[in-house]
Amino acid sequence: MDRKLKKDFRERHKASLERAMLKTETSSVLEESKLKHSDDYRGKIVHDKERFQEKVHEKISKVSSDKEKM
């Protein structure tokens, strides 16, 4: 029984070391790919009313258009 516990501990310890190594490797992401704080987005804000304006149109009912023809 002691052998199994020691083996389990070794496996868990090895896995935790590998996770720590992977975490340090991924944390060193290139600085170019990160968002820069100096970027200016003030003029690029899109409001909902402007964004959906082209999709908003007056719906014409088929029933009312048929009555107008008569």
Describe the structure.
Helices cover 54% and strands 0% of the residues. It is built from three helices and no strands. It is elongated, with a radius of gyration of 31 Å. The chain starts with a helix and ends with a helix. With 70 residues, the protein is an all-alpha fold. This is Phage protein.
In summary, what is this structure?
This protein has three helices and no strands. The protein is mostly helical and 70 residues long. It comes from Streptococcus dysgalactiae subsp. equisimilis AC-2713.
- What is the structural class? mainly alpha
Strand elements, count: 0
Q: In percent, how helical is the residue content?
A: 40-55%
Number of helices: 3
- Name the overall outline: elongated
Protein name: Phage protein
Give keywords.
70 residues; mainly alpha; 0% strand; Phage protein
Layout: helices, strands, pairs:
Elements (H helix, E strand, L loop, with lengths): L1 H26 L20 H4 L10 H8 L1
